[in-house]
TrEMBL record, chain A:
Family: Belongs to the binding-protein-dependent transport system permease family.
Domain ABC transmembrane type-1: 85-282
Organism: Jiangella asiatica
Keywords carried by this UniProt record: Cell membrane, Membrane, Transmembrane, Transmembrane helix, Transport
Name of this chain's protein: Carbohydrate ABC transporter permease
InterPro entries on file: MetI-like, MetI-like_sf
Keyword Cytoplasm attached: no
Compartments in which it is found: Cell membrane
From TrEMBL, chain C:
Listed GO CC annotations: plasma membrane
Locations listed in the record: Cell membrane
Domain ABC transmembrane type-1: start-end pairs: 104-318
Protein name stated in the entry: Sugar ABC transporter permease
Disordered: region residues: 1-24
The organism of origin for this protein: Jiangella asiatica
GO biological process: one example: transmembrane transport
One Pfam match: BPD_transp_1
Keywords: Cell membrane, Membrane, Transmembrane, Transmembrane helix, Transport
InterPro entries in alphabetical order: MetI-like, MetI-like_sf, UgpAE/MalFG_permease
Transmembrane segments: 44-62, 108-129, 150-171, 191-217, 237-255, 297-322
Comp. bias (Low complexity): 1-16
Similarity comment text for this entry: Belongs to the binding-protein-dependent transport system permease family.
Amino acid sequence: MSRPRTSSPARPMWMGRPSFLVTVLKAVVLSVTVVVMLYPFLYVIAGSFASSNARSEGSLSLIPTSFSLDAYASVLSGGIVTRALMVSIGVTVIGTLFSVTLTILMAYGLMSTKDVPGGRVILYLVLFTMLFGAGIIPNYLLVRQLGLLDTYASLILPGAISAFNLVVVRNFFMNIPREILDCARIDGASEWRILSMIVVPLSKGVIAVIALFYGVAYWNDFFNAMIYLNDTAKWPVQLVLNQYVLQGSPLTPLQNPAAPPPPADAVQMVVVVLATVPILIVYPFIQRYFTKGVLTGAIKG
Amino acid sequence: MDQRSMSSPALLSRRRMLGLGAGLAAAFPLVGGCRTEAPGASQTPGGVTSFTPPSFIPPDQIPGASISDIAGVPPAYTRYPSELVRSVKEVPGRGGEVSTFQVFEQAPPPSDNPWLNEFNERLGVTLRPTYAAGPSYGEKVQTMMASGDLPDITWIERSIAPGLIQPMLQGAFTDLTDLLAGSGIDPYPNLARIPTYAWRNSTVNGMLLGVPSALPMVNQVTMYRKDWATELGYTEPPRDAQEVMELLAEFTRGNHRGKQGGDTWGLATLGHGIGLAHQMFRVPNEWRIEDDGSLTNEIETDEFEAATEYLVELWNSGAFHPDAATLPVLDAQNIYQNGRIGLLPAGVTPHYRTMLPALLANVPESEPTAITPPGHDGGDPVIHQEQGYFGIAAIPSDVGKDVERLEELLRIIDYWCAPFGSEEHTFINYGIEGRHFAFDDQGTPVPTAGDVWAREVSGPSWLVAPREAAFFFPGNTEWGVAAQKAVAAAVPQSVENPTSNLISDTDVRQSGSLNEMYDDYLYGIITGRRSLSELTEWRDEWRRAGGDDIRNEYEDVM
Amino acid sequence: MSGTTPSSDVSTTSTSAPPEPLPALRPVLARKRGLRQRMWQARWLYLFILPGFVYFVVFRYVPLLGNAIAWQDYSPYLGFSGSPWVAWDNFARLLTDPEVANAVTNTLFLSLLQIVFAFPAPLLLALLLNSIAGDRIKRVVQSIVYLPHFIGWVIVVSIWQALFGGTGVVSDLLAQITGSPVNLMTNPDTFAILITSQVIWKEVGWGTIIFLAAMTLVPTERYEAAAVDGAGALRRIWHITLPGISTVIVLLLILRLGSVLTVGFEQIILQQDAVGAEVAQVLDTFVYYRGVLGGDWGLATAAGLVKGVIGTALVLGANWAAKRFGGQGAF
């Protein structure tokens, strides 16, 4: 009953050919959406190349009145951002692997609470953490007590599992036809084998999604770093970049009159660009897992 | 569960900018007042245990110095002294480590920072700084306090973390009142240069809990575009509120050279207009002491009502930028620097050090000129004194118990406070010659190109160094005297907030929401969202929401 | 839904290994066996759960103890042990504040708008994307629409300001049409629409991700079968796609209900001054002004707990309702 996978962009047979009107309508809706979403981003990019304050006058010009790399030079000079990028990449990669692994294991363990005495209670315990949180003081005291202050682990462990992601993954797992798993059990497969050989391959989509969620969360987080890291050499890129945004503030006491710093808002835009580019690069590799269907039939057969 | 999101950095930095960049009075009624005795000679505010400030050593009459004889006016310098004196005779530290907690709004310095290495050598200790990224300051300092981890020298900035007052009153920091009173300051000659008002204003309930980083007592200068005014036919500065309104409306409407660059406006933000109107209409500096000794809040006064009525008219005249209610201060400054705003009040040093050079670079023909706003009726205005200090360098009480350690830390702070014209000041502010700065042909230290200075010196050195309470603007040395003149003109007309160093528990808890109410009503009335008659409702609501309690608490301690 | 005795006694595993049942019989026998055997049987699953369980206990539940300061007049200096206990004082101050009613009303109104409009928006976009045959177009579009998610609120607001503010491009256009100045950013009457539109704009693309992932799970055979029956595109969506991802939709909706008292704090506080507290005061901004700024940790914590209790009630209620009406529920 398996069918050859239609991997080419060609239209699957069952989709049929939409009418001309529908095609036009879709094209219009999508184009408008794309423009509305893309325009501000181009605006940010254009702004990052602005050399004077001329941009901040309310005109949403995509072409800066004068082109300059000053803001980039100012942010990237000194190697601090580069170093912080390394920190962030490390934390993001390790943190994401760690989080995704723990989440998958726990979600699978809790998939069928019928089979796991106490599982339901654990599930509710997890759920409550979405609704009740602790303030920063108890969290800080805990991290300090565990000796994690000023360690990279303090950027990973306190947020290692998101209850939301866990519940989502579990929900996806539960959508896998029960018979597949039961068949495997009858065949004598261990739970580990079922998880790794059946459940995970069938859930590439959701795993890609939570990897993305975790990855972006680790990447964007600067709150933990701000509170837990005193050593500025360990600061991740978001925290460092955040500092540049603050630079326009009144504490800036002196400047070289011959070479004034680049406009604050250009720096702000540079920060957005630098903070987003790595995600833009990685995104397409993850995206393919949730935009392309998995043929369950193929596996069943 | 949302305390995390409460730390929203953007928000706090916005508040911070509102609060400090443009001068507190313009944006927040955090500081504010009454008619008092001549500034500088002010008496101990009533009631509170009498506070003897540390003795004061006036600035030295070095070449290029312009020392005002009006108390409370900072010195200005037209050139950098060619011979730098040594203000500290001995190495202050005794080895070992000293931890610090500093606010930090810069890119982080390299871990092996040449400037810090040299500073350590000079201090005879190894500094272990903890940098709180600006917006996280309040949370981080309270979190470290909760864990008992407060560094030896901790920066306390109540204006961005009002809640700190509670631990301060509970004894979290070493009380320096007796130690430094009068001649007690003598072992720390640089600290004796700190203006008396800064010491006094930084006390809480008569307790001196740290060394203040001084700001000018009147820290606001109002600039207007004289070139536009001249073209519009106003050759003299406006003499009353009506003329101010006319001028501001014309800045928006009229035909002047600023129009070549696009739209122009009289005022950028509502906060700027409010500050201006309150000065012209002589609104009290937050509170006024009546003859019977009772307190009246500014919003309860007729002056406030008149100023508000005026602001409504001013709004309707088109003087304001259309986004005046929300425009962040930084954006407002940008628009001003691009030559699109006719009048702008701002902090003295930000104005002369940053904004004027930028404006003149963008619009070389502009003639920004400082003015003192007129009284609304042509008489004198009332200028609001501000808190006169940024924050304090405090020593946690656990640390300060050890007297020797306490003295060592004070010596380190003393070094940090080295006055203008000293070798130490040059090092702390400008860094190492050759690496961070070079003397130009007039002997002015100028930061080297690139951002080595910004990275290695500017952030790590920011603590108590006197940066804004002495006017010296490298590259534009004549502005120092101009700034001093502007402040000197304002100080005699200024009043202090009679409650500025009193503590009201309700005020601490409620200031956030009362300030919000203030913005909500005042902005609403000015922009026409609310009617002027809602002022009555506002006053009632304010009294109910804690205003009366605050009044009673202040009156009790006065 | 299970008839098992709820037991939190997870760590106790039986030491005496009972004989393994035949694998084929396992599901059948599971219910009939004693607790110990069932636990032993699930030993691998417990092992899988263990690291996560430890994480939740250590990093989520231990700090929760700190919420006890909701019953204290907490001072960071005096610490947990030194701060005075004030019973329900903080809750009383919170709930009797005259402003809180307004804040809660605004919060609920904004939340409702977001659930009605911002919640389904990514679903619709995902359905649209899913209906595109060309994989490349689909991916390109999808990877553009998620971009705004990465722009912080400060910049989002300034971009909107530049478009819709008093000097904005769109405002100029509208002003020319209507003949009077328009400032959509300062109009209290349209504030809720403004906030909801911004949320949709910023998060719609990001939100598609999870729905698209869910759609990959719908077996292709069903579409093929439907095509054989002659079902059109809309009918396929209605009868196959939506039912296929309904559990995910229900799950997300239930979880969203749990945060009904939370609406974008930063987004709102940045724009609050322009329209006033009457329409723009929400619970989080209220707590911020009332509690956080004044260092009133007790009050802020009490507010968090109240939100948690209400969120819990809503989540459990919605979950119950979802099951009641034949769904699977979230858990």
